[in-house]
Please model this.
Amino acid sequence: MALTGNLEALNRFSNMSQLAQESFIYGARQVSSKEEMQSYVNNLVEGSYQG
Model:
């Protein structure tokens, strides 16, 4: 998963509630390219993720 390449995103993900993590994972499954996945993970770091 792209989270392992971004320590800040991984930290934020690990601090999310179980429900929020499941929502994030569901959204990640909708991504269709590597670039889109990187953007999705970056949104978590930038605070623009709306999970």
The two ends are 18 Å apart (CA to CA). Residues 34-46 form the longest helix (13 residues).
